[in-house]
Write a structure and sequence with these properties.
The complex is a heterodimer of chains A (64) and B (472).
Chain A: H1 2-24, H2 30-52
Helix pairs in contact in A: 1-2
Chain B: H1 3-11, H2 29-39, H3 45-54, H4 59-88, H5 92-100, H6 102-135, H7 150-204, H8 211-222, H9 237-246, H10 258-261, H11 273-298, H12 307-345, H13 351-367, H14 369-373, H15 375-399, H16 409-413, H17 419-438, H18 443-469
Helix pairs in contact in B: 2-11, 3-11, 4-9, 4-11, 5-6, 6-7, 6-12, 6-13, 6-15, 7-11, 7-12, 7-13, 11-12, 12-13, 15-17, 15-18, 17-18
Classes of the chains: A mainly alpha (64), B mainly alpha (472).
């Protein structure tokens, strides 16, 4: 299951970025880019959460 | 176990808080790459990028300044911080305590906590600008110092209140969420840049057929240079370089990241900080600055630096989500850290209550747009305030014995306040203040001479201090 989720997550990140590159090339409307990004973002959070859910430990500065 | 979990353990006091990290717990290079890339792509990048444009930066100065400044920052991690961390393998605070004594470390914690509070306030401000897009209330302008509408105050209260409550209750959950969001957020920042660039191409009818065309667009339309906007300091190549170098000064030259790199197998792992610098402090700043330059291009009178509307124009709902998540996931640990710093001063007080109070202070700070709108100056101040202690640690570790003096003097003498270190800190800050106030040197540049002032002072003062009360 994990490898499948990782592949889907990777595809979601590609789906997030690729429309903006096509837009940069002048071959896509901005509204379409925005919708595709939203879709890719949803897929990313659904697919990546199960295998990436771990501590970020942002308190890397030990202040105690 | 990765570096974050290791630090988490340390935070809770279960492992290595007051002992060197043992060999079996050392971590590989990859752990540091991921941590730095995520850590330095924060909500405040959406303020800093536009503020460069507001400061009238030119394309050459921005690109070359960021390349050089970030390289210097990475070198500072590699050659100042990591070598000490991998030799002593102690947390910053334990190392400081050995040198300075418990009371001086407490004072350092207080300074650190206050700075974290204001930084978190700026992050809350960033999040609140996203709420403004939905509810369309009046938001602060570039030169506003005080809250300017009831809607703004309410938005900050909601954003800051939620962040504070979550930080107090469920810090770990947000931390885990931040881990998931980090790669997504980095790419949304990249998208901001692509979209902004295309919008510029369309609005200027520029034909881009080569790198030369792109550079012409950058120099003539995006980062045109010239006079800064009203109330802003003009940024040159040197401003950008020093800002990029010193914006994380507290962490590299100031040695906060001793706590991170004590887990590194080799000191060259410090190069991993480059992942954070060139993603967050290069790509993200450039992307955010393009969005703001586009806004100014459309309407030169619209000088407001509001990450919410900027991101919404470029990426719609995803842009807004990015602003909220970037602000939230970075403000949350910052409030938590500030809470820990304050709690260290009064260990018996409840961490929950301290974090809530800290969050409330950060929220009040966030209502005042002055901090976010003057973030360039504030970040420089943040580095400056904590930097002298980094110089003290450097001298104590590498040099002080060459002068016939003791390192870890507080530990050896049993002193709770090493006056040589304390005075080196205070006098350096006073000197920096005098240089800014009376010598006309801008705050971005005083930290470099300040480091040498602190280093020399610590040696000279130790010569007197240690001679007087040297232990038998």
């Amino acid at each position: 299951m994990r490898p499948i989720l990782q592949i889907v997550s990777l595809l979601a990140l590609i789906g997030l970025t690729l429309p903006s590159i096509i837009f940069l090339a002048g071959r896509m409307e901005l509204d379409t880019v925005k919708w595709l990004m939203l879709l890719a973002s949803i897929v990313w959070f659904v697919a990546a959460t199960p295998w990436m859910w771990k501590d970020n430990g942002a308190e890397k500065q030990d202040v105690t | 176990m990765d570096i974050e979990e290791q630090s988490q353990q340390t935070q809770s006091g279960s492992e290595f808080e007051r002992e060197p990290v043992p060999k079996r717990s050392l971590l590989g290079f990859k752990s540091f790459i991921g941590m730095y890339a995520g850590e330095h792509c924060a909500g405040t990048e959406l303020m800093l990028g536009p503020l460069f444009v507001a400061a009238g930066v030119s394309a050459f100065d921005l690109i070359m300044g960021l390349l050089l400044g970030n390289a210097l920052a990475v070198l500072s991690w590699m050659f100042l911080c990591a070598p000490i961390a991998t030799r002593s393998r102690l947390t910053l605070y334990y190392q400081l305590e050995k040198i300075c004594g418990r009371k001086l470390v407490t004072l350092y914690n207080l300074a650190n906590g206050v700075m974290f509070c204001f930084l978190a306030g700026a992050m809350v401000t960033v999040s609140a600008t996203a709420i403004g897009v939905w509810f369309n209330f009046k938001m602060p302008g570039l030169n506003d110092l005080y809250p300017n509408s009831v809607g703004w105050v309410l938005a900050v209260v909601v954003a800051g209140g939620l962040i504070a409550i979550v930080a107090a209750y469920g810090y770990q959950t947000v931390s885990k969420f931040a881990n998931v969001a980090a790669p997504w957020m980095v790419l949304v920042f990249l998208v901001f840049g692509f979209v902004g660039l295309r919008q510029f191409i369309e609005v200027t009818n520029a034909g881009i057929n080569s790198a030369g065309d792109l550079w012409t667009l950058a120099t003539t339309q995006i980062w045109k240079g010239g006079a800064p906007l009203e109330g802003q300091v003009k940024f040159t190549f040197w401003h950008v370089t020093f800002f990029a170098w010193f914006c994380n000064m507290a962490m590299h030259i100031g040695m906060s990241d001793l706590s991170v790199f004590r887990f590194a197998k080799k000191s060259w792992y410090g190069v991993a900080s480059g992942a954070g610098m060139y993603v967050g402090h290069f790509m993200a700043w450039i992307s955010a600055s393009i969005l703001y330059a586009y806004q100014l291009h459309l309407d030169p009178a619209d000088t407001d630096v509001l990450p919410g509307p900027l991101a919404f124009r470029a990426a719609g709902l995803v842009g807004l989500l990015c602003v909220i998540i970037a602000g939230w996931t970075t403000a949350n640990p910052t409030i938590y850290r500030a809470g820990l710093a304050f709690q260290a001063i009064s260990p018996k007080s409840s961490r929950f209550r301290v974090t809530l109070i800290t969050g409330a202070v950060a929220t009040i700070a966030g209502m005042f747009p002055a901090i976010a709108m003057k973030l360039l100056g504030f970040v420089a101040l943040y580095g400056l305030v904590l930097m002298p202690m980094g110089a003290v640690i450097f001298v104590d570790f590498w040099l002080i014995r060459k002068f016939g003096l003791q390192s870890y003097y507080a530990e050896l003498s049993g002193k709770s306040f090493n006056w040589a270190a304390g005075l080196a800190w205070f006098v350096t800050l006073a000197t920096a203040w005098l240089l800014v106030k009376f010598a006309g040197i801008q705050i971005f540049f005083v930290s470099l001479p300040g480091w040498f002032v602190a280093a020399v002072l610590y040696i000279v003062l130790s010569k007197f201090y240690q001679k007087k009360i040297r232990p038998a």
